[in-house]
Amino acid sequence: MSLDVKHFYLGFADLSLFEDAQLSIAEGEIVCLSTGVLDGGTSFLKACAGIVPYQSGTLLVDGEEISHMPADKIFRKVAYCYESGGLVSLFTVYNNIALPLKYHRNFDNDFVAKRITSVAELLGIASILEYDVHQLNDVQLRLVNLARALVIRPRLLLADELQSGMSPAMREQILAILKDYCNQTRASLLMTTTAGDSHSIADRVYRIENKKIILESP
């Protein structure tokens, strides 16, 4: 699923985050966006997911303006993984992962259970499915957010600083899973990264500089 961002302006009140930013991702590509402190990386991802409105420019998902797409269409094709938060505190891990399948689809309980079990085992979180959200550490929270995204089998996956806090071995394992997913489904992945994160699976790496998105390495 392609993503095309052109002449992109985003800000809040008197704070301007992006001015005339550009970024294009083709179907099946993996792109990392290297971010710093409070430079707008999270807000950019949320705009790409249709969560945060932007002031002007175009943000096209498969050629369709994200702001014009109905919510159910976005939920079926685009998934955003929160760096922190994003989960319902009153729900177990299982029920959090089940949310997009139960509320935006008409799958029966057996199908939902099989899909969740498959993704949980893949990510190594099957043992915490009955945990409450408050029992999770930061890495587990990010993995549960990732599982909730993957259960819908999105065409565009947006992951915010997913690697934070992971050991090198876990990081490479999760990145390999994401690369395999993109290779098998032709889904596209845009992932923000921070200092110490790996860009090993990226087709290209960009950084945020002076309110623009700059190519760092092909």
Automatic annotation (TrEMBL):
Residues 3-218 form the ABC transporter domain. GO terms for cellular component: plasma membrane. It comes from the Bacteria. The keyword Membrane does not apply. GO terms for molecular function: ATP binding; ATP hydrolysis activity; transmembrane transporter activity. Keywords: ATP-binding, Nucleotide-binding. This is Methionine import ATP-binding protein MetN. It comes from Catenovulum agarivorans DS-2. The lineage of its organism: Bacteria, Pseudomonadati, Pseudomonadota, Gammaproteobacteria, Alteromonadales.
